[in-house]
Amino acid sequence: MNMKKILCLVLALALSISLFAACGNNGGDSSTASTGGDTSTGSDNSDAADSEPIDVLNQSETMDLTITVMDGFLQQDSEIEKWLEELYNVNITLNILPGYTDGASAIQLIMASDDLPDTIWWWSMDTQYQEWVNAGLLVDVSPYIDKYTNIRDYYNKMDPKTLFFASDDSGAIYRIPGDVAEPSCECLWIRQDWLDNLNLEVPTTIDELEEVMRAFTEDDPDGNGQDDTYGLGGDGYDFRSFWPWIQSYDLTHYDRWVVDEDGNVAYGPSTEGTRSWLTDVAELYKKGYITQNITQDTNRDEEMANGGFGVTYSWCAWNNPSAQTMISFYSSNPDAKWVPIDMVTGENGNPEEDPATSAAWAYFGITKACEDPERLYAIWDDMTASDNYIHRQYGVEGEHYEYDEDGNYVAIINPDGEDNKTQNIGLKLFYNCVNRKDECNIGNTPETTELFNKSGENSRDRAAQLVEWKDPNAFTTWLDYGTDIGDQKDQYMWGVIAGTNDTETGWDNYIATLNSLGLEEATAQANELYASQEAAMETYLAEHEATIAEAE
Amino acid sequence: MVAAAKPVHELSAWERFRKDVVRDKWLYLLLLPGIVFLLIFRYIPIFGNVIAFMDYNPYDMGASTWVGFKHFADLLTRPQFLQVFGNTLYISILKMVCGFPVPIILALMMNEMKNLKFKKVSQTLLYLPNFISWVVLSGLIMNMLDPDTGVVTSIINSIAGEKIQVLTDTRYFVPMLVVTDIYKGAGWGTIIYFAALSGIDPQLYEAAEIDGARKWKQLLHITLPSITPTIVIMLILTCNNIVNAGFDQIFMLYSALVYSVADIIDTYVYRIGIKNADYSFSTAAGLFKSVIAFVMILIVNTVAKKTGNEGIW
Amino acid sequence: MAHTNKIKTSTGEKIFTVFNYTFITVLCLIMLYPFWHVVMQSFSSMEETLKGGAFLYPKGFNLDTYRSVFNNPQVYTGFATSVMVTIVGTVLGTLLTAMTAYPLSKSRLRGGKVLMVIVLITMIFSAGMIPSFLLIQELGLLDNRLALILPALVSAYNCIIMKNFFLSIPESLEESARIDGANDIRIFFSIIVPLSKATIATIALFMAVAYWNDYFSTVLYIRSSEKWALQAVLRNMLTNTQQAMAQAGVNVVSTSNTNSETIKAGTIVISTVPILVVYPFVQKYFVTGVMIGGVKG
Fold this sequence. Notes:
Largest sheet of chain B: 2 strands, antiparallel
CATH topology of the largest domain in chain B: MetI-like fold
Distance between the termini of chain A: 83 Å
Radius of gyration of chain A: 27 Å
Strand order of the largest sheet of chain B: 1-2
Largest interface: B-C, 93 and 98 residues
CATH superfamily of the largest domain in chain B: MetI-like
Number of strands of chain B: 2
Strand content of chain B: under 5%
Number of helices of chain A: 23
Oligomer: heterotrimer
Helix content of chain B: 55-70%
Structural class of chain A: alpha/beta
Mean pLDDT of chain A: 87
Mean pLDDT of chain B: 89
CATH class of the largest domain in chain A: Alpha Beta
CATH topology of the largest domain in chain A: D-Maltodextrin-Binding Protein, domain 2
Helix content of chain A: 40-55%
Shape of chain A: globular
Low-confidence stretches of chain B: 1-5
Number of strands of chain A: 13
Strand content of chain A: 5-15%
Distance between the termini of chain B: 22 Å
CATH superfamily of the largest domain in chain A: Periplasmic binding protein-like II
Shape of chain B: flat
Structural class of chain B: mainly alpha
Low-confidence stretches of chain A: 1-45
Number of domains of chain B: 2
């Protein structure tokens, strides 16, 4: 009886398998054919570099363009879109990705479909990107990059390494950097009004900072008679909140690999420097100078609006009058004052800000579906030119924005506001397809720009100690062990801060655990990879010396 | 039926089968569209799960290769696997044991209410948490459990007599998961029992009242037996979740400090996926979970039938 | 009946009644709170929302959230799509589920158990994202609203629940119709369906909620933003740039998602209210004795 049942089941299954396996194979075959058939785009490009540049402004043939993006302006047929369509004689179909939570899934499916857009935008999908390149889905734009120079010059001016990180080993460029962070975007912020209330000076060393934190916690800086304030606050569950202590020691990071002057690479969270700052932070947390919920994934803004703490490591852009967090904060704390201050000097005597990466965090690429990749690249390049960029982001002076008497940008139509949408103007269209952070970013006030510059300059020594991987896929051991090691690291480091683990006896244990998970093997590979990557970068920078010098 | 069955033993098994099929042709016709739909829209993609046995490349089928059980072996031999698997079972079983009876009890309690208006309004209110996503609910939970300002924290602290951070304390995290899970789902879970309760013949109660049976007796002898088939089916269906401890909920609330008790297969595979986007690996993990759920349902269904209840099949 | 009740109510039962009402009332208040919180937040000012805490009433009352949400033209197209998908999907799906479940509830049906297992398997084994996508692509349904409806039309879970309910319908009710010469399809539509209003209402509610809340089908199958379902539109309004950048290992401040707390609250209200409005119409089928009443009438 039971046997019969099982037999029936197996038979039914087998039947449907054979039926649908056929179906499935068909699907597979057709997609293989479509990807395999059209690899010629790459080879066509070789002589493109020598031919005459395309004048994108005078093209008689209308080009249909489907462009897939995540951010920026998300409605069809806006004023800016129409302007671009007329300017370049193109017909743009805007394809919107469904938000960051599901964006990666959507991008994968679009790339796996038979119907590719002409331009695809993505972020952080290194593994998939490599697969796209291997499958011939993206077009190599390196032949055009020296022919249309706005994009190249902009990146070379900001950081010549950016384009190096975008290129592959053969020098081909399948991904155009879409957005690169400022060299550093953060600085130390402090409640000036609390300092004044307690007659304290602005701290310049880590010890003074700790003393200020003690006073902020214990001496009732807001004068309300209640013990309801903390020294340091920050985004919860984010090691970056402890940056002032991290930067006190050399060769340490909470996540990334670090490299010393001799080119020895080590895993940042496993260095002695990490041990030192963890000890410091744990002690401050235990004393109660740091908000107690910082070990949870809490939002800093809320705590801040309630006047809960007086020191934090945060965005330079808070300095802009349009910064929403600050507007909200001051509306409920009108007498308060947050000011950005210089990074305090720690153990190593070299105060530094948290450096961003040289590589872009978002890329866009031209796909094999595009009939004329060169023309499309030329269009992207022309759109990146200063005037066109400002027009795209901020609109037309006098109509969408103006300058006040100090020369500060004042929005008439706020690019992030309602009017931009309701009137379908289209400011910020293709926002992250080359997002310029230089003088074209007219939304920053001069003080903010100054702050960014200072932060950026003040983070280079630190940046030199941190490793950036050009091709994370090549780091195979890390693909295998990285998650487990990272988990272990998070558990240990947060455990130390929360007081459930320590850096005395716990440390050796921790390192042993990491090693048992494969850290030693990964470190060996990291050293090899770093050496070859450095060599490749030297070569690249030497080869492109002329264009880089020109951009600067 | 009994009358028609008389000559049956004279026919061969095949003829009987044919005869039955012809007799029920209209039933098969009713069944056809639904089954076809399932075959097309479910079975074809389900057979896509064969990519668990490949190194699958969605962008280039030609680059995909068969690798057998490699990804399963990889999953099962990962250093964290045992812990993660144990957590998954522990959390889901705890949720099942604590959470399963709650909608039944609620439905029965509300069934005793004579005030129709009150009943209707309270039903609606009980469903509300179901419509608030974990993203939002987790924000509220964090607020309530804030170590300094949380309303619930102060209650817990006064009971426990020490300062407790529920969300980062391995002793309290799992109970918190269970409580909030029940909170969100229990009201919505009552619907099915309301539907079952609505099928009970009121005459049964009237007869019982005439016999002088107390409310308690009515509950034991009429209400509960009437909804037992529903309870059994729901129990079997719940077993499908034996390896689903609740990704959304845990993902929104957990942190490294509670990995040791809260990290489940889904969250772990998700973290691996961030670093190393591998469809085949995550499909293998999904398939592994499905097989366990399948076995679990087989067992529970058999037990249900052995104990005289109606199973799924 | 009320009369007899009064006489027989013991003290124990009285205490129970009081406890019952009190308990459910307290429970309802607790259950109401998150939604209430969200509603009040949606009417509050951005600054106040940022401060957090409890929201028993709107702080800094204003309608900016709703103005901002309804200023997005996509909300209207999304609403239209979602209503269409929900109605068509629920009607077709409930019908198809009932049609599938009814024959399976007949123990005399040859191969019924095998078919039941075939149905069950679709619940246990999930279909992967890419295979599902490739299927819809092969069927030519990409970027077609039908792709939002068809894949979810029959679910094993609903099917099993429904089959279980059909089991409780006494066979005798069908016998008389059969003697009158009605075939199974007629019996199904003229006897079984009217008897199963409560069940059908339940399954319809499940399906409607599932269709209404579904955003992932949009992610999978729809490209043109004017065809997005409402939930996808609302989620997109909350997209978190900063989080994404942090995920990419980049720490950049984002200025674009400034008012997300109030917007988030507003979108929850907007997406939940239609369900709450529809619910009372379903609820009336849950009143005790509907089925038997149906038989008698």
